């Protein structure tokens, strides 16, 4: 879903901020990234099918002060959220679709699979909240993402639907998840972050 007058073709096709190679990361930054990854995976090793994200981390490595301030907040949405892993990934994948972020979609197609989403469900996220097969709560989650994209606010009817299944902290997590991953989608597209080869099989199919 692009804004009027804006097309994917108008964007730069190049890495505007090339990722810093891991060998060039400072020792402090390497330790920080390692701790962040460990927290995301509950202190254990990453699942076998988790992709590296080296290009995104390498881009963020260009600005260590920002990255070390931002990632702990972003980390809450991954390992501290009150939403289930499935609910979180439904939201993020809908955001990636709405903001046309191929990198975000591919990375979270992997994480969505880890969270229990089937390939058919992941593909159906692009069809939106009215697609058959969603529970009432899942449809409300996807609709909230659409409304935040469209007007910057969750509509009252959708909010009331969400309150049937989510408490106050979960409602806050819903809005902050959409907002944070929309911001990341805009950043990755603007900076020209390119998917790593192991993400390419998960890129969205464009008609």
What does this structure look like?
The two termini are 13 Å apart. The N terminus is likely disordered. The radius of gyration is 17 Å and the shape is globular. Helix 4 crosses helix 9. It contains 9 helices and no strands. The protein is mainly alpha-helical and 207 residues long.
Mean pLDDT: 90
Order of helices and strands: HHHHHHHHH
Biggest sheet: strands, sense, closure? none
Number of distinct helices:
9
Summarize the amount of helix as a percent range.
Answer: 55-70%
Terminal CA distance reads 13 Å
Roughly what fraction of the amino acids lie in strands? under 5%
Shape summary: globular
Protein topology:
Layout: H1 27-40, H2 54-60, H3 64-80, H4 85-98, H5 102-114, H6 119-125, H7 136-151, H8 156-163, H9 168-191
Structure at a glance:
Helix content is 58%, strand content 0%. It has 207 residues and is mainly α.
What features would you highlight for this structure?
mainly alpha, 207 residues, 9 helices, globular, disordered N terminus
